[in-house]
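ingest -> validate -> predict -> emit
validate: passed (alphabet ok, no gaps, 245 aa)
predict: started
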Amino acid sequence: MNPLILIPARMAATRLPGKPLADIGGVPMIVRVLRQGLEAGIGPVAVAAGDPEIVEAVQKAGGTAVLTDPDLPSGSDRILAALAQLDPGFEHDVVINLQGDMPFVDPAVLSDCARILKEFGDADIATVVAPEASAADRSNPDVVKAVLAMEEDGQSGRALYFTRSTLYGDAPVWRHIGIYGYRREALEAFNAAAPSPLEKREKLEQLRAMELGLTIRAAVAQTAPISVDNPSDLEAARKQAEETR
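emit:
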């Protein structure tokens, strides 16, 4: 395999406009995410930017960024557009989609995505889950739950479904972390398809892949990283940056 990590980012976030350039401990958030991607050491890392300000910030920090159409509807559309610019010769057969709002993501999580695709030949897409943080996660519609058929070692599982609904029973509830590793042909098939019925019902685009018949496998991480979606998340990230200086 020859992985490439791509980080989609745009300034027009609904709940926190301009968040890719939000200052976290003196460093723009997108630059922190880029550095975590590089720490994984699994392949080149680039930002798929929807705005020139993001490209400028990344390049100023010594990173790679490409400008994509700001009107693209999703992060997966953005990474496919960046991929066409960065790798027209199809040298990279695996693409890791790292969200641009995870400034402290564990680099091992990205390595796990690549490992899943290497170890399981039936996996079209790899992703990551973490144990529930509290019992409240089970009924919180903002927490996406993954229903998995677990492997015997308990370190990975095949995805059966993803949902925002409440899950019952004594078995562990897995929180989905929105990081994906795609085989390139799976990414292209996913993007070529229209939003599916289950995707529209749950507002979860990974269900489009499942309705297409693509196999998703998930690696288990110990904890979910901070995802900066609103001002309170940003304050928590800034506090973490201060604590880890």
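The two ends are 35 Å apart (CA to CA).
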